[in-house]
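[Q] Does anyone have a clean structure-token version of this?
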Amino acid sequence: MNEVFKELSAKFPALYFLKIEAEEYADISEKYEISAVPSFILIKNDRPVDRIEGAKAAELTNTVAKHAKGVLNKFSVNTTTATETIKPVKDLNSRLKALINSAPVMIFIKGTPQQPRCGFSRQLIDILTQQKVKYSSFNILADEDVRQGLKSYSDWPTFPQVYINGELMGGLDIIKEMIASGEFKELLPKEKDLSTRLQELIEKQPVMVFIKGTPEEPRCGFSRQLISILNNRHVKYGYFDILSDDEVRQGLKAHVDWPTFPMLFYKGELLGGLDIVKEMIESGEFDQVLTA
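[A] Here you go.
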């Protein structure tokens, strides 16, 4: 959504765009009743006139365009662009599957483990902490596509949701019952040392990239450039979002002695980061390695 926001600010210069971190400005968040992130508030004459909650690119584009017309008629929405930002169901399902399988224990919650945004999510975090369960999490308030899509994908209407080895266990009440019966502990994957886990991730696909965000929504410019290069060259690859697991993020740096992201691996061997990939492409070495 950062890219969409940036594009809209360039497309509608007659409007003033401002981005703030909701948690750092609690007074503003309270004033405008922010209950989800991201949230977009349109203000005219010091009064809110419209709002969009969640990562709804098409709705945001159309809403901004509607209000921009009242400021300067020459600005109009490009409906083709707005339509193209909507993720096809097939692509969304692939992304959901990747997220669910991105860690042995994966939870989808409102907020983060450090700052849960609802009581059920908070209870789940407390329970997993008490049980000393290692897990990764996804904040559904940060992505409306994931929030709504996961309900249909797993046929489970509420959050939080807990997955073990890619299989849905259920919500908070189910987890409580499984813990009481002892079943939950039995289902937990046997803990692997970090080095083994990292190597398994590296070798998960012949071509693996470790990036910030996802191929559909990269969270940094370097990751975005690398994904663009791979897509333009029609390279099939797997990926891991390092923002979803800080243990992997920090451990991988030491594991391969490479300090920055993104990282690109081929058949378990580190090729390097974005600059190395660009150099390999210029020399012709990149295509030779990937077709060897």
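[Q] Thanks! Anything notable?
[A] The beta strands are 39-44, 47-53, 105-109, 136-139, 161-164, 167-170, 207-211, 238-241, 263-266, 269-272.
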